[in-house]
Amino acid sequence: MVAIGVLLSLMPCLQFGYGLTLTGDPSLTMDLTADAADNALVADWDITVVLYLQQDLEATVEYSGSSESTSIDDETLSATANDTSVMIITAGADVNLTDDTIVKHGYSTNLWEASFWGLNAAVNIQNTSISYITDINVTTHNGAANIYAYGSETVVHIDGAWLYSSGPAAHGLYASGNGTIIATGTATISDSTLYAGLLAGFVIFSSSERYSGASLSISSSTIDLLNEDIPALWFGNVIADATLDDVVITTESGILVVANYSQVTQEFDYYAGYSDNNALSPAEAYIIVSDSTLTGDLVAYNESLISWSLTDSSSWTGTAYSGYGTYYIGVSLDSTSTWTLTADTCVYNFTDTDTSVTNVKSGGYTLTYDKSSSANTWLDEKTVSLSGGGSLVPGTCN
Ligand SMILES: *[C@@H]1O[C@H](CO)[C@@H](O)[C@H](O)[C@H]1NC(C)=O
Ligand SMILES: *[C@@H]1O[C@H](CO)[C@@H](O)[C@H](O)[C@H]1NC(C)=O
Ligand SMILES: *[C@@H]1O[C@H](CO)[C@@H](O)[C@H](O)[C@H]1NC(C)=O
Ligand SMILES: *[C@@H]1O[C@H](CO)[C@@H](O)[C@H](O)[C@H]1NC(C)=O
Ligand SMILES: *[C@@H]1O[C@H](CO)[C@@H](O)[C@H](O)[C@H]1NC(C)=O
Ligand SMILES: *[C@@H]1O[C@H](CO)[C@@H](O)[C@H](O)[C@H]1NC(C)=O
Ligand SMILES: *[C@@H]1O[C@H](CO)[C@@H](O)[C@H](O)[C@H]1NC(C)=O
Ligand SMILES: *[C@@H]1O[C@H](CO)[C@@H](O)[C@H](O)[C@H]1NC(C)=O
Fold first, then answer.
1. What is the DSSP string of 325-347?
2. Where does the signal sequence lie (predicted)?
3. What share of the chain is helix, strand, coil (3-state, %, to 5)?
4. What's the 177 CA to ligand 5 centre distance in angstroms?
């Protein structure tokens, strides 16, 4: 299972011109007191893990099969029964949603099925279906996910979403079983004290053996992470690609990216290790940043890898280090991008199309590149003076 979860309290607020005007942080405009009892419910994961769906997925409306090719505009749709989605789009259907309002009440009676197959998710898109969603307003209660994508070749493009959820284990966007979600727009992810167990802004992991192929693409978005412990992006037990284009990220933790020899438990309450899954492997995260100004650190654990490429007038302020054991972090800069160091830093790979490295602002710190990586042969084990008084030197990170 590869799960890409935007955890618990994703509350994007988006503003676009047409039918729906999606403004305002949902946590400010929704009546949170009315949902206090719902939020107080604790997710019940203490049930037998199911590895297959025990019933057909049900929905108020279902579009199934490649002959379904339609678009649904300006509608309000709802579901109130347990284990019932508002909408299922499956089996290769091509259904676009524009300016729709989706309202979901009702519980999932099996949280494993909810997590693995999107049982009870408000909008559940599955099995090679492709959907373009524009300006959608999804409110869910009783722990239902907002938008769920499942299965290889399932691709959900989201441009403008206003998502609110209450109840146990409610996720904003959730991709599982290799599903892909591509979100565009201004998303404000605000941590809410109503929810426990928020682990990161975006969590990309595999919960069996390590898979590759997960990808995350965020553009023109603002992500605010108000919890002091959580990184913006967390990768565990996967090989994954991410692109961040025109993105603003604010973290209280000061950590942008974690790659770990770990996975997230289905409760999303802690980072699990070998004792929970002895098929774990280190994570490899390949991240391309463009047109963004970012502040925060990169942290790799126990043989994990982070490749961090700054392109297209990006600037990054931060450092990179090991959380535990051996780490592999590569930083590459194009000549339009800059890196401002905030500590002495050792990277496994360092590449820069500005070969005199004038785009690294050292602040007096030392940037060490690992002599053992072939990516650094262009430096020929030279020491280079950096602006701000520090220098780029050969060395050994691990
Ligand atoms: C989204 O829909 C919910 C439920 O209908 C409503 O309460 C909320 O105001 C809507 N949000 C916006 C931004 O219109
Ligand atoms: C859905 O939107 C995409 C992108 O605009 C378009 O290529 C596709 O034809 C649309 N499909 C339907 C059924 O409207
Ligand atoms: C829906 O699920 C909730 C929580 O499990 C349960 O309390 C309620 O009785 C269920 N409703 C129906 C109609 O089965
Ligand atoms: C999608 O495929 C899975 C695996 O074959 C199946 O269990 C599930 O019921 C399918 N989803 C829908 C909505 O039919
Ligand atoms: C996800 O990808 C893995 C590896 O390619 C494959 O074995 C698995 O069947 C895929 N799962 C789904 C639900 O498509
Ligand atoms: C990293 O993974 C280990 C288990 O392998 C876990 O104990 C630790 O909490 C994780 N830390 C982070 C920040 O992911
Ligand atoms: C580190 O990885 C090794 C496997 O290489 C594993 O046995 C060990 O439990 C991991 N330790 C942590 C803290 O993740
Ligand atoms: C370092 O560069 C090598 C050679 O190009 C590459 O295989 C490896 O993935 C890179 N590692 C990191 C951490 O960027």
1. S--EEEEEE-TT-EEEESS-EEE
2. 1-19
3. 5, 45, 45
4. 6
Residue nearest (by alpha carbon) to ligand 8 atom 2: 375
Contact at 8 Å (CB) between 90 and 63? yes
Determine the Cα–Cα distance for residues 156 and 154; give it in Å rounded to an integer.
7
Radius of gyration of the chain from its Cα atoms, rounded to whole angstroms = 22
CA 332, CA 309: separation in Å to the nearest integer?
A: 5
Q: Which of 3-7, 100-104, 301-305, 322-326 has the lowest mean pLDDT?
A: 3-7
Residues 331-371 pLDDT 10s: 999 999 999 999 999 999 999 999 999 999 999 999 999 99
pTM reported for the whole predicted model: 0.67
The reply to whether ligand 6 has any atom less than 6 angstroms from the CB of 304 is no
Report how far ligand 3's centroid is from the alpha carbon of 338 (Å). 55
Q: Please identify which residue in the block is written with the tokens 């030279």.
A: 382
Q: Which atom of ligand 1 is nearest to the CA of 23?
A: 13
- Rounded to the nearest angstrom, the distance between the alpha carbon of 107 and the centre of ligand 3 is 7
Ligand 2 atom at minimum distance from 71 CA: 14
